[in-house]
Specification:
The complex is a heterodimer of chains A (288) and B (419).
Chain A: E1 3-9, H1 12-22, H2 29-50, E2 55-61, E3 69-72, H3 81-97, H4 109-130, E4 139-145, H5 154-166, E5 169-175, H6 181-189, E6 194-196, H7 202-210, E7 229-230, E8 237-238, E9 242-243, E10 250-251, H8 271-280
Parallel strand pairs in A: 1-2, 1-4, 4-5, 5-6
Antiparallel strand pairs in A: 2-3, 7-8, 9-10
Helix pairs in contact in A: 1-2, 2-3, 2-7, 4-5, 5-6
Chain B: H1 2-6, H2 13-20, H3 23-30, H4 33-42, H5 45-56, E1 62-63, H6 69-80, E2 84-86, E3 92-95, H7 97-109, H8 111-114, E4 119-120, H9 126-152, H10 156-160, H11 164-173, E5 176-177, E6 184-185, H12 187-194, H13 197-214, H14 220-231, E7 241-243, H15 250-262, E8 265-266, E9 274-277, H16 279-282, E10 300-302, E11 307-310, H17 315-321, E12 326-330, E13 335-338, H18 341-349, H19 354-363, H20 367-370, H21 378-390, H22 411-418
Antiparallel strand pairs in B: 1-3, 2-3, 4-7, 5-6, 7-9, 8-9, 10-11, 11-13, 12-13
Helix pairs in contact in B: 4-7, 4-14, 9-17, 11-13, 14-15, 19-21
The chains are: A alpha/beta (288), B alpha+beta (419).
GO molecular function, one term (chain A): zinc ion binding
GO cellular component, one term (chain A): transcription factor TFIIH holo complex
Family (chain A): Belongs to the TFB4 family.
């Protein structure tokens, strides 16, 4: 048995912008969305049709959502998966659109953490029942993302990716909103697939051929992965930075007190070097 | 004799049956979305992956010479089922467009909706339902046990519990011999008893379908009902009830009654107008490769000194067990036997294989011994295999002997003959 968790971006704003960008002509936005959701439904059904014991978990991530888990094929009372998935996504988007939150970044961490826990739970239950250790992959997570930016959740997500890797959970990312360095890392760490979709017509094909447990996977899907870390202070990707010796937080400029753990650095830094960060900008405002 | 091969061959028995059907009937089945979904589930992962890449990647064509070995066996299997067709031009093969369409529309609708059964939601009596659920599971298991008991110990009392259709199927399959009250189990029947529940139900169904085909009746009607029911299988199937379809033909109705008798579905009263699916039916959705998932704990403990303890009073289990063990003590809820060379050889002589014996012991293991790493001591399983190999020491080959040559000159011919 395999568990598959599909994490769909629940930001209504982003879906709207996506539909507008990908439509063929004005007024066709609805077509684009229908197509995208239909692909998700088909993908879920194909996963369920691979084996009777397969489990499907559908999550949406976004702001102001009361319910993260939209559909669980094992526990749900309604066996009609197609209508449940469509209803779930629609409800999530509606809830998000009325939440009044206009932040332009995804809030993936909490949902991803729940998904990993659920898959772990299903895997341990499964092994107890059949008394056999399931070899290889325990489960998969497919993230269908729209917003490439994850704001302040960078370090949280990195930790989650590593723990997913530790539990043999593979994360595949299908990005509809352009390349995202962070999600690329996620796929690279967990031996998953990272795909950017340019045309909505490609979505079902990519999902079916690359993101299912039975898919043939080649490791050469991406050659260079941007492994730069984001700094704690401004969420900028930095290649050279300062690292807190206590909590290993990455900072783009020197700070006397670590913003993440509060450690105080008593090192006397040469005068010239202390000047530099203020020149770069994004530093404390100049005193009058 | 595909029955003998079924245990170790990779292909699910239903697929083998499908390959043996005539082309027209198979074509009619493949056009049905629910059938496509069901069939897809039974394929091995590599075949599934091949089909998926063919469906979604229109540029993908099968060129046999570019494929590696395991793929070729998938392709030949799919070709036998008419799912992959010869393109004619430049030695390529394409996916059958009818199957493609069927599978896609099935995938879009989802397995439950394509089964076209209407579930009935009863919210009001949940407490009562809980109690009933246990009932459904227990009763369905009892029904299937009845069949097995009839097979293992044909007698006046067990004959009453099975219908004439069941008896016909078992007789046609060669599991029993004789007619009327004088019925005896054959060695093939014993092998059937040793199979895991999944394989038992499948091979019974296949024999039923074979019997129908032999009598010249189309199996499409029956498969239609059966597969659609199997698609409805969900976690805890016994909690859901479905409406009885009024458009069923008389033959389909009879078939449903037969399924009820086997314990695959449960109908409380015929006039209620709804039926429950049982966990036994769920066995039909499992392909061979996930057989191990249905492991239920049994009552048998095997010790390293070849002693077998069975904590059961079921006469069926004991009858099966005594076919390859030498029973020493029998108490009312527990029996003791010893696996001896003679007793195992007796079983081997009637055509039961060592693997079947070992897998029977494994599937019916006591939970206590399941918790250890090796449910059956390795010494015992090895010894049973060795006893089987003992019988294969001689290899027979056709040969000719030339003798009594008159002249000494041709004695070299003798020499060649000996080589």
């Amino acid at each position: 048995m395999t568990s598959l968790a599909v994490l769909v971006d629940g930001s209504a704003c982003a879906w709207g912008a996506f539909a507008e960008a990908k439509r063929e002509k004005p007024g066709m936005e609805k077509e684009v969305l229908t197509r995208a959701f239909r692909s998700i439904v088909t993908f879920s059904n194909v996963h369920l049709s691979l084996a009777q014991s397969n489990q499907l978990l559908l999550y949406a991530y976004g702001n102001g959502m009361s319910k993260k888990l939209l559909y669980d094929s094992v526990r749900s009372d309604n066996p009609d998966s197609s209508s449940c998935i469509i209803k779930g996504i629609r409800g999530a988007l509606r809830e998000n659109s009325t939440s009044g939150d206009a932040r332009k970044c995804g809030v993936l961490a909490a949902t991803l953490a729940t998904a990993i826990c659920q898959i772990r739970k299903a895997a341990t239950l499964g092994t107890n029942k059949s008394e056999e250790t399931i070899s290889g992959q325990k489960g998969r997570i497919v993230i269908i993302s729209l917003l490439p930016d994850f704001g302040s959740q960078h370090s949280l997500l990195m930790n989650l990716f590593f723990s997913a890797h530790k539990h043999d959970i593979c994360i595949d990312v299908v990005s509809l909103g352009g390349s995202s360095a962070l999600l690329q890392q996620a796929a690279d760490i967990t031996a998953g697939v990272f795909q950017v979709i340019h045309k909505i017509e490609d979505l079902p094909r990519i999902l079916m051929t690359r993101c299912l447990p039975v898919s043939i996977r080649d490791s050469t899907s991406f050659t260079t992965v941007d492994y730069r870390a984001a700094c704690v202070c401004h969420e900028k990707l930095v290649s050279n930075g300062w690292t807190c010796s206590v909590c290993l937080a990455v900072l783009c400029s020197f700070m006397a007190i670590c913003p993440s753990c509060g450690a105080v650095f008593k090192i006397t830094v040469p005068r010239r070097k202390r000047k530099r960060p203020t020149e770069v900008g994004a530093a404390p405002s100049p005193r009058p | 004799m595909d029955f003998f091969r079924m245990g170790d061959s990779e292909v699910a028995p239903f697929i083998a049956f499908l390959a043996s059907m005539n082309r027209e009937e198979r074509g009619r089945l493949i056009s049905d979305p629910s059938f496509c979904l069901f069939l897809f589930r039974l394929f091995s992962p590599s075949t599934q992956s091949l089909i998926l890449s063919l469906i979604w990647d229109s540029t993908q064509l099968i060129r046999i010479d570019e494929r590696i070995e395991p793929d070729i066996s998938c392709v030949t299997l799919l070709e036998q089922l008419d799912i992959v067709l010869q393109n004619g031009v430049n030695n390529t093969k394409i996916l059958n467009p009818i199957f493609r369409r069927g599978y896609l529309s099935g995938a879009l609708e989802g397995s439950h909706r394509s089964s076209r059964f209407v579930p009935i939601n009863s919210e009001k009596d949940i407490d009562k339902k809980k109690k009933k659920d246990k009932d459904v599971v227990k009763k369905s298991n009892e029904r299937w046990e009845c069949l097995l008991r009839f097979l293992a110990l044909p007698s006046e009392s067990t004959v009453q519990n099975v219908s004439s259709t069941t008896r016909d199927v078992l007789n046609h399959a060669g599991f029993t011999s004789g007619h009327g009250t004088d019925i005896e189990i054959t060695s093939k029947g014993f092998q059937f008893l040793l199979l895991s529940p999944v394989k038992q139900i499948w091979s019974y169904m296949i024999e039923l379908l074979k019997m129908e085909t032999r009598e010249g009746r189309s199996v499409k009607e029956l498969l239609d009902v059966l597969l659609r029911m199997a698609l409805c299988i969900h976690s805890e199937p016994e909690n859901k009830k479905y409406e009885v379809d009024n458009s069923w033909t008389e033959r389909q109705c009879n078939f449903v009654t037969h399924l009820r008798e086997l314990g695959l579905i449960f109908i409380r009263k015929r006039k209620d107008g709804f039926f429950y699916l049982t966990p036994n039916l769920a066995n039909l959705c499992l392909a061979n490769h996930d057989d191990s998932l249905t492991k239920k704990s049994g009552s048998i403990i095997v010790e390293t000194n070849f002693r077998v303890y069975a904590y059961t009073s079921s006469s069926l289990q004991l009858a099966i067990l005594s076919s390859f063990t030498c029973m020493t003590y029998r108490f009312h809820d527990m029996s003791v036997g010893i696996l001896t060379r003679d007793s195992v050889r007796k079983a081997l002589q009637v055509g039961i294989t060592a693997n079947q014996i070992i897998s029977f012991l494994k599937t019916n293991c006591h939970p206590e011994s399941l918790s250890t790493s090796l449910p059956i001591p390795i010494t015992v399983s090895d010894q049973i295999r060795l006893w089987e190999d003992e019988r294969k020491r001689l290899i027979y080959q056709e040969a000719a002997l030339y003798s009594s040559f008159e002249s000494e000159k041709v004695s070299w011919i003798k020499y060649i003959c000996i080589i």
